[in-house]
Amino acid sequence: MNDRLHDLESDAGHSGSGGAVAVAPSAAAAHSAPHTPQPIRHRHVETRQLHVRKPWMDRFEAWVSRLTANNNFVRRIASMIWLPYAFRSGLKVKRVDSSTFTAILPFRRANRNWYNAMAGAALVGNSEISAGMYVYGRCGGDYTVVCKNLEYKFLRPCFGPAIYKATPRQDIDGFLAAGKEFNIDVDLEIVQQLPTRELKERRVGQCLCTFHVTPKSHHRDKKSRTRKPGRK
Predict the structure, then answer these.
(1) 93: closest CA among 132, 138, 130?
(2) Which of 51, 150, 154, 207 has the fewest CB atoms found within 10 Å of its own CB?
(3) Residue 176: inside a domain
């Protein structure tokens, strides 16, 4: 009997000394040990700018603007819809290089007056269109171009095709780099193409056009600010 009690006491002593791996001593140590907070690892969250999809009308207008700025055939089709006067007059805009445009007004019956000369209304009206197409071609389809002022000076009658040569007074590229709305003055020299072998020219008029150019994004921002609350 005494031997059996001695064996039980020895077993209990061994279980107490080797109980570091057992569950009960670990739970007791967890309750007794002070809690040390773990360091918080900050996760870098990548923020991306949400792309707001433009309305389909704005996308269609931008698409037509890009086509008309680069393609003469599409420009003629667009003028038939939105500029019927320019389409009937037969005005043709020709790109010489990246910064030079010329417009040719043919000497057709629709542009002549009763004494068989180029009508003054045709010369003045197509001056605004020629200078506007020049500014529009330089700025691109993301801008709206509106004529604010036009001054035309008649020098002599025109008895042949009229050629418009545009020269800006300010640096358009500098205005475009700023990304803001601006005013631009364009000088037009109107010459008559003489029917000779050398294709000589005779100046028939001078014109000064002032245009107000605005990014289309400004129009959208203004429309969103003036929209009533709760109205979609």
Answers:
(1) 130
(2) 51
(3) yes
What's the CA angle centered on 167, arms 163 and 168, to 5 degrees? 145
Query: What is the number of structural domains in the chain?
Result: 1
pLDDT in tens, 97-126: 666 778 999 999 889 998 899 999 999 999
Q: Are 215 and 142 in contact (CB under 8 A)?
A: yes
Report CA-CA distances (Å) from 120 to 114, 115, 158, 161, 178. Answer: 12, 12, 9, 13, 38
Question: Please, which residues bridge with residue 147 across strands?
Answer: 211
Residue 38 lies in a domain: no
* CA dist 121 → 110, 174, 223 (Å): 11, 34, 36
Provide the residue range defining the domain that includes 203: 56-221
Q: Give, as one character, the DSSP assignment of residue 29.
A: H
Describe the strand order of the beta sheet including 162-168 as a list of residue ranges.
92-97, 100-105, 162-168, 182-193, 201-215, 143-154
